[in-house]
UniProtKB/TrEMBL annotation:
SUPFAM superfamilies xrefs: lambda repressor-like DNA-binding domains (SSF47413)
Protein origin, superkingdom: Bacteria
CDD domains named among the record's database cross-references: HTH_XRE (cd00093)
Protein name per its UniProtKB record: Transcriptional regulator, contains XRE-family HTH domain
Pfam families: HTH_31, MLTR_LBD
GO molecular function: DNA binding
Coiled-coil boundaries: none
HTH cro/C1-type domain: residues covered: 13-67
Length: 257
């Protein structure tokens, strides 16, 4: 029986630096260390302290999950824990999410994790899912797959090519910034679905989601809220996506519901 070798912390640091398109000199200046010392860390000639790993990870804006990977590769214990949302320690987080979702009603809002899997949603989301295939609504529900799949919302999205271009660009950027192979695989899967892409500059201030319904086309602008000071992996990887009316017709229809 063989076990996979643990990646070297120097290789991981170099990979993150290159992903952020920084030179050794740029990162060294930002972190307050010499370029020579950083070079030694990346080549394995020197081993970083725990404090140095965390300092470089902060400068490189490495996600918390991958900061734990850096620490493990350097021979240290992880710094960031992961609790379930049902943990008493995350009760305040759960209450905060419930308040945010309730505050957005009657407008749709949902909570997703880093993989874009649905965690919870408010009552405003359910009417928008009419007609979606049952297999796309079985947990875990991936909201991006649900939106772009031909058996999901895609046939009802009036500006599908434009919305697809927005979703794929955003997902591709997240995959690159986090280095998450799961996000990269999801991007490949969704890019292979039909629907085309329209990368032309949209009218207005943002790309809307224009959804055909029995009340006509409803138009939404999306906003994203995250926990900016989270030090727990679960909380750090949650985000609230709210869909706000982009026109008066949408506001009236949802208000009447």
């Amino acid at each position: 029986m063989t076990t996979a070798a643990r990646p070297d912390v120097g290789d991981l640091l170099r990979g993150w630096r290159q992903r952020r398109r920084l030179s050794q000199l740029d990162l060294a200046n930002d972190a307050g260390v010499s370029a020579r010392h950083l070079s030694f860390l990346e080549t394995g000639r020197s081993r970083p302290s725990r404090e140095m790993v965390l300092r470089l990870a902060e400068q490189l804006d490495v996600p918390l999950r991958e900061r734990n990977d850096l620490l493990l590769a350097a021979g240290f214990a992880p710094a960031y824990g992961r609790r379930g949302l049902d943990s008493p320690d995350l009760a305040a987080v759960t209450r905060a999410l419930e308040r945010v979702l309730a505050a957005h009603e009657p407008f749709p809002a949902l909570v997703v994790d880093r993989s874009w899997e649905l965690v919870t949603a408010n009552a405003g989301v359910a009417p928008l899912l009419d007609g979606a295939a049952a297999h796309l609504l079985e947990p875990p529900v991936n909201v991006l797959r649900l939106s772009l799949h031909p058996e999901g919302l895609a046939p009802r999205i009036a500006n599908l090519a434009q919305w697809r271009a927005h979703v794929l660009h955003r997902l591709g950027r997240e995959a690159r910034l986090t280095g998450d192979p799961g996000l990269a695989a999801l991007h490949r899967e969704l890019a292979a679905l039909p629907g085309g892409t329209d990368r032309s500059t949209p009218d207005g201030i943002a790309v809307p989601l224009r959804l055909r319904t029995g009340d006509g086309v409803l138009s939404f602008l999306s906003t994203v809220t995250t926990f900016g000071t989270a030090v727990d992996l679960t909380a750090a990887e949650l985000s609230v996506e709210a869909f706000l009316p982009a026109d008066d017709h949408t506001a009236r229809v949802l208000g009447a519901r």
